[in-house]
Amino acid sequence: MPEIEQAVNHIAIITGTIKRFGYTQSLEQQFESHLSTIMSHTGFCRDKATDYAIEVAGLLNLKDEERVA
After folding, report:
1. How far apart are CA 22 and CA 27, in angstroms?
2. What is the residue-level pLDDT of the chain in tens, covering all 69 positions?
């Protein structure tokens, strides 16, 4: 799995964990690390990299739902 796809997947997992169990400093550090990976691979600024991660995570989720159906 390409590094950028791994980063996007991890951001989605971290975001879901925060929503379910709450914020921790460790989760924030992991989120920032994966966001930095996306920023370095795409050249996007922080806001655009966050939007990109959300969009790609949504597309990956749709693919998973199609496989289940």
Report:
1. 9
2. 688 889 988 988 888 888 889 989 999 999 999 999 999 999 999 999 989 888 887 777 666 666 655
